[in-house]
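Fold it.
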Amino acid sequence: MIDFFSAYEERVKNTTIYPRSYALAPEKLILFGAPKSGKTSLALDLARHYKKPLFIDCADPRVSLDSAQKVLLKLFLEKRFDMLIIDNYTPAFTIPNHSHIIITSHKNPKMRESKIAESKTLESSASKSSAPESTPSILADFSAHCIHPLSFEEYVSFSKSSRLESIFASFVKDGNLPEMLFLPEFKRALRHQEIIALHFQQNAPLVAFLLAYQSREFSTYNVYCHLKQQQKISKDRIYALIQQLADECAISLLPHAHATKRAKLYFYNFALPYALSPAPNFQAIFENMIFCEFARRELGVVYDDECDFVLDSSAFFAMPFPSQTQIDAKLARLSKAHEEIIFISVDSNVETHTSAKGAYKVMSFIDFALEYFQ
C-alpha cells in the first residue's frame, strides 16, 4: 500500500507548483474541468500551507480503493491529517466527514448526484409510491469550481520571456495548458495529441473532427449527419461525446442573444487545431482565444448575428488584422447603438473613433486580456 503522506511529498516534488488567480478557501472544494487544465496543481498549491496533508490518487493503478478507504478511515479517526486531497475522484470512494478536503475530477460529481436523485424521483413518481427519505450527500457542503486553463495574464506571469510579443506568439501557437510552458517547444504539439488520445481514447478522432466547428454555429445533429456520410457511427455515441465534453468543460456552447438560435462552439484549449487539424483556421483560433478570456471570468457573454460577443451594452469583434474598410463594414451592419464597440486585433495602434453606432476602438489582444477586465 502506498504511503499517502509520502505520495503528497512526491507529487509536490515532481509537479511544477505555481499560484493561480483563483481565490479559493481550501476547506471543502471540488475542482473539476478538462484534462490538464491545472486541477491537481491548484489542489497541491492550496494544501501546501498545511502541516500534514494526505494525497490519494484514485486513478493510480497501485491504489486499491478498498484498502485505501480502510487506511483513510483509520487515519481519520486518529486525526493524523489536516488536509485531504482526493485526486481523480470516483463516486465509489467514500469520503470522511473532514473539514478540509479537496476533490479533483473531470466532471462535477455533484452534478452526477443531482441527476441520480432526479432519476429516482421520476421512478418513484412513475410507480406512484412514496419516495424513501434520501440520505444527505457528503458532497452537499462542498463548493464546486470549474478550473479553466491559464488566462493570458496567468500565462504571462509564468513565462520566462520578458517580451510580451514573444509571449503572445507562444500563447497563440502552444495554447493555454499550464504544462506547455515547461516543455521544450518540439514536444508541445505531440503532448497535445497525447493528452487527447489518452483521455478520449477511441473518441479522440471525433474530438479532432469537431475542431472544424470551432467558433462556428453548432448542432450535434448536424455533426452526426455529416459524420455518418463518412463512417458508420451511432447517434448515441456522438450525443454522449458532446455531453461528456460539455460536462468536463472541454467545450463551451456560447448562447445566441435570442435563445431559439444555435449556440457557437468553443474549446477549452483554443490551440488544439495546431496539433490535431491539417489546416488550422487562425480566425477561428483567435476568436476562441478571446472567448476563453471571457469564459475564465464567467461574465455571461452571448453573441448575436452582428457581433462576435456581446456583454451587457458592449459589442466585441474578433478581427486579427482589421482594415478600416472591414471595420466600416462591421459597423454598417449594426442595427442598434452600443455604449462600447471594441475590435480586438493581433496588434493595433488605431485610435478611438466615434460612429453613428457609438464610440469604437481597436485593441490588441494583449491590451484586452491584461487591461480590459481590470
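Residues 129-135 have pLDDT under 50 and may be disordered.
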